[in-house]
C-alpha cells in the first residue's frame, strides 16, 4: 500500500538529522551552495538510521547550480525538510557545462520524502524569452525541468511551492508508489512548456489536493504510466489535464487505469484531453474523469486521435493508439468555446466504450451556444448536454 510511506517524522528514535548549514551552505542567494548540499546529501543518504533527515532551514535562500541527488540510500526514509528557499541560476550561461535537462534531479532513491513550506524558484524567465521550438537539442537551448524524479520508489512530495520553472515544474520518469500532495505550482499563463506535473513510465502515483497555475498542461500523463490517481486539483491558467500525447513518431505507447476526480479547471485552454498521434501503436484505456468542474474552460472535453502539433507530416495512417473504456461522469461547468465536447477518433482504430453520464456543459457567455462534435466514437451518453450524437442514448 502506498499509505505505508506516510510516517511521522521525529518520533522515531532512529532519526538522524543533517543540516545543510553544517556542511557549509551559506544561504545568501549568491554563493553556489550545490557542493554543500551534495556533501550533506551524501551523509544523509549513507546514514543507516531508519529516517535520515536533511534540513534546508527557513529564512535562507540557497542558490543551487544543476545537481542530482542519487540513491540508493541506506536509510529506509530519506526525508528532506524543505523550509527555506532554493533558487536557480539567473542566467542561461550559468548552466554551461552541465549536460542535463533538469535543474534538480533525484534518482534511484527508495523512501524519499520532500516536505515543508519552502519554495523552489526555477527563475525560468530567461529561458521563456527564447523558447527553442524546433531545435531543442541545440546547446544552451534546452530549458531544464525544475525537479526531475527518476526511478524513485515509495516517495512523497508534500506542501512545498514551485515557481517559474524554465520548463516543467515536476517530472516523474520510471517511478513507483508516489504521493504528491498539497503542492503549489505556479508560473505565468504565457510561459512556454511549463507543465505542472509530467508523469511518464510510472506506476501507482497519486496527485492530491494541489494548486496548479501554469503555462502548459497542469498534469500530463504520458507513455508507460498506469494506476494514476488525481484528486482535488485546482488548475488554471494552464492547458488542463492531459493524457498523452501518445504515439509520436510511430511509437508504441500505453497508458491505463487513470482516475481523475474532484478537480476544478478554471479558464484553461483545454480541459480534460486525450491526445494521440496517427501512426503509433498501443492504447489509452480505463480512464475516468469524475466530479470535474469547468469554469470558463476553452475546450472542456477532447479526445483527439489526430494530434499533430508541429510536424509537417500529419497524414492519416492505418495504425494508431486505441482509446477505450473512457468514462466522464458528474461533469459540470461552462465553456468559452462553442465546441464543448470534441470526440475526434479515426476510422481504423477508433474509440470504444466511451461513456458520458451526467455531463452538463453550458456556455460561459449568456446567449452563446455549445455543441458536441463526434467522429468514430462508440459508447453511450446519458444525461448529457450538449448531446453527443454518435454515442448511443
Ligand atoms: C528498514 O525497514 C526494514 C523492513 O521494514 C527493516 O527490517 C530495517 O531494519 C529497516 N532499516 C533501518 C535502517 O531502520
Ligand atoms: C475536493 O477538492 C478540494 C480541493 O479543490 C478539497 O478541498 C476537497 O476536500 C476535495 N473533496 C473531496 C471529497 O475529496
Ligand atoms: C483524417 O481523417 C479525418 C476523419 O476521417 C478527417 O477529418 C481529416 O481531414 C483527415 N486528415 C487528413 C490530413 O487527411
Ligand atoms: C475536433 O478536433 C479535431 C481534431 O483536433 C479537429 O480536426 C476538428 O476540427 C475539431 N472539431 C471541431 C468541430 O472543431
UniProtKB/TrEMBL annotation:
GO terms for biological process: carbohydrate metabolic process; cell wall organization. Pfam families: Glyco_hydro_28. One of its GO terms (molecular function) is polygalacturonase activity. It catalyses: (1,4-alpha-D-galacturonosyl)n+m + H2O = (1,4-alpha-D-galacturonosyl)n + (1,4-alpha-D-galacturonosyl)m. The active site is at residue 239. It is found in: Secreted, Cell wall. Its EC number is 3.2.1.15. It comes from the Eukaryota. Keywords: Cell wall, Cell wall biogenesis/degradation, Glycosidase, Hydrolase, Repeat, Secreted, Signal. InterPro entries: Glyco_hydro_28, PbH1, Pectin_lyas_fold, Pectin_lyase_fold/virulence. Belongs to the glycosyl hydrolase 28 family. This is endo-polygalacturonase.
Amino acid at each position: 500500500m502506498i499509505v505505508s510511506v506516510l510516517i511521522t517524522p521525529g518520533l522515531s528514535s532512529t532519526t538522524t538529522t543533517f543540516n545543510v548549514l553544517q556542511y557549509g551552505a551559506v544561504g545568501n542567494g549568491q554563493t553556489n551552495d550545490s557542493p554543500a548540499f551534495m556533501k550533506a546529501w551524501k551523509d544523509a543518504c549513507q546514514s543507516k538510521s531508519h529516517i535520515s533527515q536533511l534540513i534546508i532551514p527557513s529564512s535562507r535562500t540557497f542558490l543551487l547550480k544543476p545537481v542530482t541527488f542519487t540513491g540508493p540510500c541506506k536509510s529506509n526514509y530519506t526525508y528532506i525538510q524543505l523550509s527555506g528557499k532554493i533558487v536557480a541560476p539567473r542566467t542561461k550561461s550559468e548552466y554551461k557545462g552541465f549536460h542535463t535537462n533538469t535543474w534538480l534531479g533525484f534518482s534511484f532513491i527508495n523512501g524519499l520524502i520532500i516536505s515543508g513550506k519552502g519554495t523552489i524558484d526555477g527563475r525560468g524567465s530567461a529561458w521563456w524569452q527564447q523558447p527553442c521550438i524546433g531545435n531543442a537539442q541545440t546547446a544552451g537551448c534546452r530549458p531544464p525541468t525544475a525537479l526531475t524524479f527518476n526511478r524513485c520508489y515509495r516517495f512523497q512530495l508534500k506542501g512545498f511551492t514551485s515557481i517559474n520553472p524554465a520548463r516543467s515544474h515536476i517530472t516523474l520518469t520510471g517511478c513507483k508508489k508516489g504521493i504528491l500532495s498539497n503542492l503549489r505550482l505556479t508560473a505565468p499563463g504565457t510561459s512556454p512548456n511549463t507543465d505542472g506535473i509530467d508523469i511518464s513510465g510510472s506506476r501507482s502515483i497519486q496527485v492530491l489536493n494541489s494548486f496548479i497555475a501554469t503555462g502548459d498542461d497542469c498534469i500530463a500523463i504520458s507513455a508507460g504510466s498506469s494506476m494514476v490517481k488525481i484528486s482535488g486539483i485546482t488548475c488554471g491558467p494552464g492547458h488542463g489535464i492531459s493524457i498523452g500525447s501518445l504515439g509520436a513518431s510511430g511509437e508504441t505507447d500505453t497508458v491505463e487505469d487513470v482516475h481523475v476526480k474532484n478537480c476544478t479547471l478554471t479558464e484553461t485552454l483545454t480541459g480534460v484531453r486525450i491526445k494521440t498521434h496517427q501512426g503509433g501503436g498501443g492504447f489509452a484505456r480505463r480512464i475516468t474523469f469524475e466530479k470535474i468542474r469547468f469554469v470558463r474552460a476553452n475546450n472542456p472535453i477532447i479526445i483527439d486521435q489526430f494530434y499533430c502539433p508541429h510536424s509537417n507530416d500529419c497524414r492519416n495512417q492505418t495504425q494508431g493508439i486505441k482509446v477505450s473504456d473512457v468514462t466522464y461522469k458528474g461533469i459540470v461547468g461552462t465553456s468559452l468555446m462553442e465546441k464543448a465536447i470534441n470526440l475526434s477518433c479515426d476510422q481504423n482504430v477508433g474509440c470504444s466504450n466511451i461513456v458520458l453520464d451526467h455531463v452538463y456543459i453550458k456556455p460561459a457567455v449568456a446567449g452563446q451556444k455549445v455543441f458536441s462534435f463526434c467522429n468514430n466514437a462508440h459508447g453511450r451518453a446519458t444525461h448529457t448536454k450538449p448531446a453527443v450524437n454518435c454515442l448511443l442514448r
